Amino acid sequence: MSHTPSRQDFDHYMAPNYAPQQVIPVRGEGSRLWDQQGREYIDFAGGIAVNSLGHCHPVLVEALKDQGEKLWHLSNVFTNEPALNLAKALVDRTFADKVFLCSSGGEANEAALKLARRWAVDHHGEHKDKIISFYQSFHGRTFFTVSVGGQPKYSQGFGPVPGGILHADYNDLESVRKLVGDDTCAIMVEPMQGEGGIVPGKQDFLQGLRDLCDEHNALLIFDEVQTGVGRSGELYAYKNYGITPDILTSAKSLGGGFPVGAMLATDAVAKSLVIGTHGSTYGGNALASAVALAAVEFIDTPEVLEGVKKRHDLFREHLETINRKHGVFKEIRGMGLLMGAQMSDAYEGRAKDILPLAIEEGLMALIAGPNVLRMAPSLVIPEADIAEGMARLERAIERLVAAA
Q: Which residues bind N(2)-acetyl-L-ornithine (predicted)?
């Protein structure tokens, strides 16, 4: 007997840790989606900054089909050509000398944190174990990464958190100076906080972190899970600042929708990840690596990266136009195609109320906390889709204002 799944099936069969919208998308093409009833939506959410080339981009589909007829998976007893090609592509395009492949951003950050601790033990001893990160940061859902993340709500209720983790204020270098010392093994930072509200790091703040790490023989880890692979207008956001980390993590846009993650590091640091110290069952999977390589090679071109910057300006212009009419935003910020609109005082905490209204108008968007409307669309979203999506967003905001 055939069965057409419904939203009620989620409540019946799935663990209750999510609260998805009522619509169930079944097909996507470019920056548009269609649900079970055939209704169309414009996608400004991008799977939370994952669908870097939209839905079913032909370059990624071709890579998946081609590899799917050759080789899917091998254990880490073997390597494979797609994984080696992806690693080479990432090394050739970044500061890094070595790559560890995994399946998600959380895994990539877990690997980065373990590597930092192992490196510190190898070079300085057991006492050098402190990790500094920032309030409102988000680094994943493993117990280590959620503890390093600066939002206690994600780690509460699971028992004692790992020790040696300190939190400072983002974009406040003095708050870091108060915590850093010779027992610091790493500072972990997002060059632009994503879940924390789409807050770009200041140039002098990030440079100051680099200087503090150098002064105290600590490692600088850039979490670029959300900002990486073209999202900021450069292949990785560290290039916007001219500041080189020791370790960088990547996922989300890296696979264009296929689960994949990577940790990139210099030779001097990566040497501590010796045989047996870490692993990932699906890391370096041939299917994921082939798709990720296709995504990286397509995105890392002047046409796409310059297009991201141009689209950023279009998004900002539309949002500012909407705001002049309705006064719902206090600030519009972000880099490239990761943008946030902070709600004005009159609409404090109301960002989440826009999402269901937008769905009804045929638009998918996101929030970054209760007070920031977030947009992370395809890096190649057509300008016509931007204009139509913004028209739908404005209708949703008009309804929000009318109901206030």
A: 141, 280
